[in-house]
Amino acid sequence: MNMERDLHMASGEGEASYVNNSRLQLKALLEAEVVLEKAVREVYMDLHNPTMTVVDLGCSSGQNTLIFVSKVIKVVSRESSSRSGFHPVELQVFLNDLPGNDFNHVFRSLERFKKQTAAEHEENTTLLPFYIAGLPGSYYTRLFPPQSCHLFHSSYCLHWRSQVPAGLGGANEYINEGNVYIAKTTPAGVVELYRRQFQEDMLLFFKLRHEELVLGGQMVLTFHGRKYEDLYNNGYLDHPTGLLSRALQSLVEQVCHIIIFTTVIA
Ligand SMILES: C[S@@+](CC[C@H](N)C(=O)[O-])C[C@H]1O[C@@H](n2cnc3c(N)ncnc32)[C@H](O)[C@@H]1O
């Protein structure tokens, strides 16, 4: 699998779409709200530029990314209106995800978002002008010129690896005993492959963002972590990932049966 080319959340607005199945991600976004607001405020107060550049890495196609944008607009509008002597700023927002993401859905929502933002805009504050653009590409590559971004945000994304770890799954290679996650039956070699892939990915991510951030810029990153040192104890993720791997296995078995059946008939 080529992650950059093949990975994407379910597009559109149907029952199984990302748009209609991202409430857990919304919860994570809201829980990190205070941290985000503090970072936006500090970045604004430290700004030496008429444009504040803000990026949502792994924006996907749902409402959550626009909720993030709306928070940034509110905080900066409030700050710039309440402090005399601070110069006016304009906001440039980049919404980033992999090329297969349903950017069209986000783009189609923008007109409504602009009207809603204007309607909800607080009295006694000046609504800051904002410009929103889509940016397809992997955050494991360079996305911006050097020192050009003031704030990176990423919610519920960085647990995605850049690739399936080399050495996993092919003939004569490690296999994960039917799991789609690190579970009780996962061989130690598989755990080690994922650990190394995670380290490589995160080092690369930080190196790239460090090059793109202005001095004094900030990042707010929210992603799955572990409560326990024991890698085989995934806490609340054990149950859903176990169910998911069983469902996938049953689908694979059905497909295999159909292939064998048609081969016998033929
Ligand atoms: C669970 S969604 C979270 C989306 C959104 N931030 C939210 O809170 O609803 C994770 C997103 O990360 C994106 N993603 C995964 N790996 C990525 C990468 N290397 N570069 C950019 N986006 C990536 C996926 O395509 C997906 O849209």
List descriptors.
single chain; 266 residues; Rossmann fold; 5 strands; binds S-adenosylmethionine
Give a concise summary.
By secondary structure, the protein is of the alpha/beta class.
Write the layout of secondary structure elements.
Elements: H1 3-6, H2 23-31, H3 33-45, E1 51-57, H4 64-82, E2 90-97, H5 103-120, E3 130-136, E4 149-155, H6 188-212, E5 213-222, H7 238-265
Parallel strand pairs: 1-2, 1-4, 2-3, 4-5
Helix pairs in contact: 3-4
User: What does the radius of gyration come to?
Assistant: 22 Å
Helix proportion of residues, in percent? Answer: 40-55%
- As residue ranges, the low-confidence spans are none
Structural class: alpha/beta
CATH topology, which one? Rossmann fold
* Bound heterogens, unique: S-adenosylmethionine
Number of helices: 7
N-end to C-end Cα span: 31 Å
Multimerization state: single chain
**Number of DSSP E strands:** 5
Instruction: Using the alpha-carbon principal axes, give the shape.
Output: elongated
Q: Strand order within the widest sheet?
A: 3-2-1-4-5
CATH class: Alpha Beta
Give the name of the CATH superfamily. Vaccinia Virus protein VP39
Label the CATH architecture.
3-Layer(aba) Sandwich
* Overall number of structural domains: 1
Strand content: 5-15%
SSE order: HHHEHEHEEHEH
